[in-house]
Amino acid sequence: MKFIQGENRNQITLFPVSLDQSISIDNEVRLIDLFVDSLSLEKLGFKMDFQENGRPGYHPGCLLKLFIYGYLNKVRSSRDLEKETSRNIEVMWLLKRLQPDHNTISNFRRDNNVAIKKVFRQTVTIAKHFNLIGGKLIAGDSSKFRAQNSKKNNYNQKKIDQHIQYIDNKLDAYNNELAQNDGDNSRIDELKKDIKNQTDRKEKYNQLEKQLHETGQEQISTSDPESRQMITRNNITEVAYNVQTSVDEKNNILIDYKVTNNNDSKAMGNMLRRAKSILRDNSFTALYDKGYHTGSEFKTANDLGVDVLVAIPTLPSSSQSPCTDYNLDKFYYNKQDDTYTCPQGQILKSNGNWYSEKNTRFKQYRTKVCRNCSVKHLCTRSIKNPRIIQRSQYAEYVEKNKENFDKFKNIYRKRQAIVEHPYGTIKRQWGFSYILTKKGKDRAESEMGLIFTAYNLRRIFNILGKELFRKYIEALCIQLYHILIKIETVFCSFSKSYKYSYSLLISK
Questions:
Q1: Which domain holds residue 414?
Q2: What's the angle, vertex CA 351, arms to CA 350 and CA 355, rounded to 5?
Q3: Contact residues for 401 (Cβ-Cβ < 8 A; gap 6+)
Q4: Residue range 138-170, pLDDT digits in tens
Q5: Are 238 and 207 in contact (CB under 8 A)?
Q6: Predicted confidence (pLDDT) per residue in 407-427, tens digit
Q7: Same domain as 294, residue 250
Q8: Cα separation of 138 and 65, whole Å?
Q9: Are 308 and 268 in contact (CB under 8 A)?
Q10: Domain for residue 505, yes or no?
Q11: What is the pTM of this model?
């Protein structure tokens, strides 16, 4: 039976093929090379000056090309990238056969958080140039990316108390057994050793408890200090980072991201402020889910002049009336009189005083008629007290959002399709559901910056096509080259003029 035969490995080639000829003209790796070459790396913040002593360092553009290629091809481990430099012909072409080791590769990602974020911004600039970003409708959301910190290495006060209680019980048992020992020296030595081990463990937990009190934090993670245990879905928790993103509706392109270790409740205002700065406009509408439903954040959006549509969370059962016909939304607020009217037509008034609770100020509204009302048992669960309504300082902004949400539900339905597109690609297709780096948010931001840069480039490649993108980047490179030539010419003329003036001064 005949099969297609490969070449003889020992066959000598008469006309050798160069490395450049091995890479097709439309290969994506050429676009990565052009993209990085078009960047002013020093202006972006990459370190370009190195000491002349010893072996020269690698150019940051070389390592940036390696990382972008790796993330676009689902390879992000520094050791795996090191392997690719010696076995992947595309990487050999991209790096001109340079082979940095894994420490050099890893350190580059670790040390260039700010510069990597600016590289991401360049992808947004390119998208804006080609009108790929509409700037009229954006969606914001967050996603948990698991940190390099196990649950066992994450502690709160409750967990520390459980460990200390367990150790105390063990110590009591060992001490009782030691007191009752009838002279078995080998067992005595073993018990003393166990007591010392448990005492050392208890000291460790005492130190963690002390750190909790000193820092005022609710959690401590020992492997990745700034990661936190969070609910990822339903009641499943992970030690993770919470990554906030803003995605434009026109082509699902990311315009901004921020790595946090907090929940969503206080995130919307800051992300809107950043989006306004990036888009240089506030005439856009932002869509968020119910996790962002916070009064102070609605006020921030109002101050920025940005329209938001935020899903309205369901009232917990403890905040609902025994009969839903008497829930708060059934009470009418009169802004001019600063009063509420209940479903029975009674007027609830405030004494004008402001009260504070959990950094929120509010007024209280009530009526004396409530005590003898025939439907009081349907309105409130309190037997002695009348129905009391609390109105926070942000109530008008919350009400405005509800009015807009009910009016533009058809627009809000687009939210999930917009904002989940990047996460679907990154987590499901690429498998990047966790953060590879350790030791804090800065390193996690470097990781996410490279992931999101790769995502935006993939979207741009797919939408524009490789040829149009190549022509645009080549034009940028030519423009940058001419700018550098002009700078060099001006510098040379200044240098010659300075030398001439100096020589005249010396001659005099």
A1: 137-147+240-314+408-441
A2: 90
A3: 293, 298, 308, 309, 310, 312
A4: 999 999 999 999 999 999 999 999 999 999 999
A5: no
A6: 999 999 999 999 999 999 999
A7: yes
A8: 30
A9: yes
A10: no
A11: 0.86
